[in-house]
Amino acid sequence: MFGKTTWIGLLATALLIAGCFMNWIIVPGHDIVISGVAAEGTRYGRPGYFHFLTTFFFLVFLFTPRIWAKRLNLLVAALNMSWAIRNFIVLGRCEAGECPEREAGFYVVLVASAIMLVVSLLPDYKTPKPATGDTPGE
Length: 138
Fold this sequence. Notes:
The protein contains 4 helices and 3 strands; from the N terminus they run αββααβα. The protein is mainly α and 138 residues long. It has one domain.
């Protein structure tokens, strides 16, 4: 029913959602723990919520058997990957002489976003063949 890349994409989205609930960063000097859904004590908001939004659209377009959905899925996956890279750069940088400790959830989100981008580049889509006699001009 579904191809391999569809199942891989589904697993990557589950991995991304799980990674958003894991710890991303620990700032030891201030005893701050940042995850995708909780970043109290910082000015970064909740960076995992954008991942949830893009994951929703990724799944909708992944299971829609239309060529326009596959093209939009590439856009959504690219936005998701760019947000993951942005979080990796902004949240993981040293600031005022204190370098945060990157946790496993941070890398899980980055890898899951990369897998989603690869899956969107290799969609399970077969172009429909026109039936014989359906050509214009006959």
